[in-house]
Amino acid sequence: MKQLNVTIAPLSHQLKPNFTLNSRSIDLSPVLLEHMYVVFSFGTQKLVSKFYILAWSFAMDGKVLELDLSHLPSIPQDCTPLWKFFKLYLYIFVALVALLFMIVTFSISYLTKRKRKLTYEKIEGWEMDYPHKLPYRVLTKIPRRLS
């Protein structure tokens, strides 16, 4: 019976790893043809992640050849690092919080001035010499006290 071993190692690791991620006793010779493409798929819970498969080795029968790390291509450089996305979201968040703060501040200021304007009464010139007229607030409280 043939055995399929799946191993993974970081790029700095020179030798084939001893630890296998998955091991199955399976004969793949009826499934695998002479010329085939192999597709790898990864999944994580991160928002954005990238994986690179720089090399892989496979043998139908016998021992797998060791990988020569000196012949591997270099890892592609990412043109948009992840921190730039977070930086953009941070700028947008700060701008929205500042805008919300300004709207709340101006609204409170406007409502306070409007309330003062409605309750404020000017003292006219004739009131300086004679008795003052009653403020509107006092006049509105009188009927409530009488009933």
Automatic annotation (TrEMBL):
Q: Which SUPFAM superfamilies match?
A: Concanavalin A-like lectins/glucanases
Record has Transmembrane as a keyword: yes
Gene Ontology molecular function: any one:
carbohydrate binding
Q: Which residues form a coiled coil?
A: none
User: Can the keyword Membrane be found in this entry's annotation?
Assistant: yes
Pfam families linked to this entry: Lectin_legB
Keyword annotations of the record? Lectin, Membrane, Transmembrane, Transmembrane helix
Instruction: Show the stretches that span the lipid bilayer.
Output: 88-112
Cross-referenced InterPro entries: ConA-like_dom_sf, Legume_lectin_dom
- Identify the residues that the record assigns to the Legume lectin domain, covering every copy: 2-71
Its name, as the record gives it, is Legume lectin domain-containing protein
The protein's organism comes out as Nymphaea colorata (pocket water lily)
